[in-house]
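Notes from the pairing session

We agreed to fold both candidates in a single pass and log them together. This is the raw record for the first candidate, unedited. Please don't reformat it; downstream parsing expects exactly this layout.

Candidate A
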Amino acid sequence: MSILKKGIVLFCGVLLLVGCATTPSQPPNWINSLYDQAYNDATYICAVGAGSTRDNAVNAAFAALSQTFSTQVESTLTYSGYSSAETLGGGETTFYDSEAMLDQSQLTSRSGPIVGGEVVNTYVDSNGTVWVRVAINRQKTAQIYSKEMDELARQIASIKMSAATAPTQLGRYFTLLEALPMALEHLLYGEQIVLLTGATKKSYLRDLNEELDQIAASVTLALEVSVDVPSGEEETTRKEVLGAFRALLNDFGFKLGEVGTKGVPVVKINYIVTEDENTQGPYSHAHYTLSVAIVDGDKTIGSYQKSQRETAMTPREARTRALRSALNRGVEGFKEALR
């Protein structure tokens, strides 16, 4: 036999031995105990996953790791929501109706993926099931999160500086609103660092909310409502829309004045409902649009819009459902935009 052939046989024999070594007769302790001398609880956070393939096992392990973060951090967080915002030319801020409630399933997605995780052990049992253990180093991952928090803090500080130079209190309010999503993300990173290392970081969210409350208390707004609905429903609809927005702005601490008063910004609210003329079948459909624009002098500094279709047995019932939706989901969406 040639030396090359002997080398091949020897090499294959080594591979065979290694392959057998990865499937010991007894499962490793880390499958049940998670932590050991190599990966101790003080230095690492570990999770185990199993699957028919290594990829499935890794996915299961990281899902378990994510759940560990969510479960342990969720109890220290308060629920909050806000709409996304986009700053347009001229300083106007447009809000898009959305919800961003904090809960277990959204915690890691709000803060980005859990970084620093790696597969440290793999085991295949007698049934062919693949087991893996993943681990993240507490200190290293916390350092990465700290850098993200520093960048968010820098952005928040920049927004606060811009707000300080706003020509009006209302302009200052809407400028500060842009920092809320960043402050929320900053808080989530901070809570994960608490889980990882026990170290606490400064939070900007509470101070920012308090500052917004103080500004709102110093601002007077006037409400101007217009409606485009079938004849005979105008006055009732207008009163209901006006009442809903009065209550909302009062809750936020804004003072309410009269339209036309010098120096008082106007919240222009427009509600339109139309019947779907392409309706087929026994049902009627009504499509509504609720638009809100906040005008300070000759400048629109914020806007919001909500559109939706409602269905009922008769056209009037569909319009009633549409108005109910606008006064609930639409007004709630505007509320989230103000927070």
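Candidate B (folded immediately after A)
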Amino acid sequence: MERKFGHICDPRSMHTRPKEIIRMRKSLSFYNKLLIFFVLVGVIPLLIIGSMTYGFSKRFFLEQYRQQLHGKVAGAAERFDALAEEYGGIMNTIGELPEVRQALLGGSAELKKNVEQRMHLLLAGKKNKAAIYMINADGSVHYSTRELPSIYNPAKYRGWGIFRTAHEAEGEIRVYPHAYDSPQGDKVVLSLVQTLHSSSGELLGYLIVDFPRALIADIVSAYDAPFAMDFVVLDRHAYTVIHTKQPEREGTLEREPGEIGSGHLLQIVPSERLGLSVYGYSPAAIVEQSMGFIQTLFAVAAAVSLVICLWFAYKLSKYVSKPIFELAHSMKRISMGDLSVRIESRRVDEFGIVASGFNAMATQIKDLIASAKDEQRRLRVAEIKALQAQLNPHFIYNTLDLIKWNAKMNQTKEISGIVVQLSRLLRGMIHVDDEETTLGAEMELIEHYLYIQRIRFADRLRVDIRIDDDALDAVIPRLLLHPLVENAIVHGFENKVGSVDLSLVCLRRGDELHLEIADNGIGMDEETLAAIREGTHHGGIGISNVHNRIRLYYGEAYGLDIESEAGVGTRVSLRIPYRRKEETA
């Protein structure tokens, strides 16, 4: 593949491969193949004709549907107007009866019976009868077709609710939407109210007509339509009189009337006499169900055309998608670390050029990563050698001086132990064939160092080492902890009088190791601590070196954390991933 790409792109080789050049010229480009595909299947004409036919059909049926919907909503509004006219006439008839005014001023039981009979007669023959209440001005006398609700007490509520509405237009019939449960158990959602006056204009009482919800529901649902509808009736203040779909919202203010029927076909018709707005809405999807025979013919024609398009699309998409799929699959394998993947292709069109370029790119990436890994390894080895070079000469001098004084005191046993531990320590420090070691091996190196320091400090040095057993086989970078232990002793204890304490704790927490080295040495002031954290302090042994190595091995999320207080001590903590030797192989 790469060989073909090279000959195609190299003008010097054109005369040596004439057959390949002829095939390349005869082979159509991806753009031409795609263009031929669209011309053959006729997608554009199909889309234009299909969209026009479907759009026309939908608009036609949508208009028909809207007209029917408007007719049903307008019918409900007309029935509300008829209700207002009918009961307005009843209220005017009652208000004009002479015996009514006499009854409101107080009358006999016979008079009350006659008035209530007249009221019942006016309601005769009605399916859902409204309740009529006539109450005198102080509420002491009332006449009604049903039991008087407790809320109709003018002496108590004259300045509120329905009585306040009645006084807004004295003598005129007013509409008052509200919601309460009557003593008979049905729900009242709308009322008409009128003040009654004597010939001199004195207030005699109130005439109230209550419409139960069942009556209002019959008005909005009295339609004959082949589709489902829901109704909402609001007053001019957006108060919900009735909501057929969500009855729980009745008796509340509709905060966003414009959202009613959202996503549906909606018609709004006002009821002029009652001052109400009737909202009727129905699912727009029903239009799709009304397309009928025209949509069926369109669907058949579209299905036939679609089959033809799909056949051509399958042939060409298979031809086009296969190399794209191979390229995507190969790129995924590279992203997962498999740099050996290559695309095998004999095509000589644009896909062949892409495949050849991909193979060349994969080879370059593999070479670059190998080079970067080798450079990283050399850097890590250099870091370890730098730590070896930083082994404090003062420690070597003190150890040799310790051997000298033990020799003068003829302490041959102590001398032997010091020399053995020093040799093991130096051997472990010099041996850097491996970049990594186990925590257990690192602790052996630290034990050699602490053995010598215990003899130097005699009984002053107390060491507390606590390590989880399952952490000893964890793989860590070589010389990760030793510089920190040496730093604690050299800088924390050398100038301290009295006993000194050193603790080293290593715990496994899930997939991480938590290590902490703490001492009660002389500590550091804020300025020195800030310089160490910023990497500008040069007095420590390998602290910045260890910090940088942790980040080099494990990423920016890991590193050292140093806490110190002058005269109290220092604590160095670090967190690294837990890995075992077989996991790093």
